[in-house]
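Quick one, tokens below:
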């Protein structure tokens, strides 16, 4: 998985989490769903980035790939 795809996963997760927080403050009933899905996207993206870091032999060139 490329860095741009991981960044998009983080971005989607951040947007969904921010919406979940906003909806939680407005007391909407489906806010928890957005929080759970957003945090799941962030967790999956974090697992992908950790996998790439551990798989890469030279960590200095990580951001170049």
């Amino acid at each position: 998985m490329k860095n741009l795809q991981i960044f998009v996963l983080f971005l989607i997760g951040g947007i969904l989490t921010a919406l979940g927080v906003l909806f939680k403050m407005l007391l909407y009933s489906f806010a928890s769903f957005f929080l759970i899905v957003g945090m799941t996207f962030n967790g999956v993206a974090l697992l992908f980035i950790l996998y790439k870091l551990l798989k890469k032999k030279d960590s200095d060139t990580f951001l170049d790939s």
